[in-house]
Amino acid sequence: MHCYEDLVNCLSCGIILIGLGHLVHHRKTQTSYGRHMVLSPPARTVPARLAWFLQEIPALLAPLLLMFTSHKPSITGKHLLLGTFCTHYFQRTFVYSLLTRGRPFPLGVMVAAGFFCTLNGFLQGHYLLHCAHFDEEWSADYRLFLLGLVLFYVGMAINIHSDYILRNLRKPGEVSYKIPTGGLFEYVSGANYLGEIVEWFGFAVATWSLPALSFAVFSLSFIGPRAYYHHRCLRHSQNAEQSCHSTLILPCQTYPTLPYSISE
């Protein structure tokens, strides 16, 4: 397949603008999601496990289909980076989605997320397979590449471990929120979000590309406000004990706590 460079650049810039637009729009209001979800009576929802599976799997299938239908010679660097991207979405599709105990999703949120995952999966796969240039000496200066991969897998480990902590706060059937402890939750109030942000900025460093950077900026713009509103809810709650957490990545502060988790 030919490299559609103009399309790649337009999609990448569009993703950045959408992310920044979301960040500006949600400075004062939180997205209807998880604990902050407000549904009108006729709103349709999808069970959390099914919603996560359906919205995440396009980001795994799109690059795999591109890779299996590509007739270009196999290059280690491209497939290693694409495999790194797919590793995240394999875990989110076949592990996280089957274990999550979250609330049902609004149908519209699931459809929008599925559309973005399809678009982003195509963008990252097409760029790495058909546009990225890795000559025979691609590993000669591997410092940024290795740094990016280390950041990605460290972030992924943080994200998975934090999800494990959040998931085990609740007994089967429980939907109430609780304060997480352990792991990086001892230092930050959004350890699961921090891990995912580190992941995608690590991926951007490893690929050193505009598409990967656009996705990292998009992730920060969407996840950052969510973490902020969770943290603000904890800080401004009343009739609760004092607990020490940070914001997202800043030093520890003291704020009142609620029986809430930041898992959603």
Automatic annotation (TrEMBL):
* Documented EC number(s): 1.3.1.22
Catalysed reactions listed for this entry: a 3-oxo-5alpha-steroid + NADP(+) = a 3-oxo-Delta(4)-steroid + NADPH + H(+); 5alpha-pregnane-3,20-dione + NADP(+) = progesterone + NADPH + H(+); 17beta-hydroxy-5alpha-androstan-3-one + NADP(+) = testosterone + NADPH + H(+)
What keywords sit in the KW lines? Differentiation, Endoplasmic reticulum, Lipid metabolism, Membrane, Microsome, NADP, Oxidoreductase, Sexual differentiation, Transmembrane, Transmembrane helix
Taxonomically, the superkingdom here is Eukaryota
Protein role = Converts testosterone into 5-alpha-dihydrotestosterone and progesterone or corticosterone into their corresponding 5-alpha-3-oxosteroids. It plays a central role in sexual differentiation and androgen physiology.
Q: Which family does it belong to?
A: Belongs to the steroid 5-alpha reductase family.
Task: Please give the name of this protein.
Answer: 3-oxo-5-alpha-steroid 4-dehydrogenase
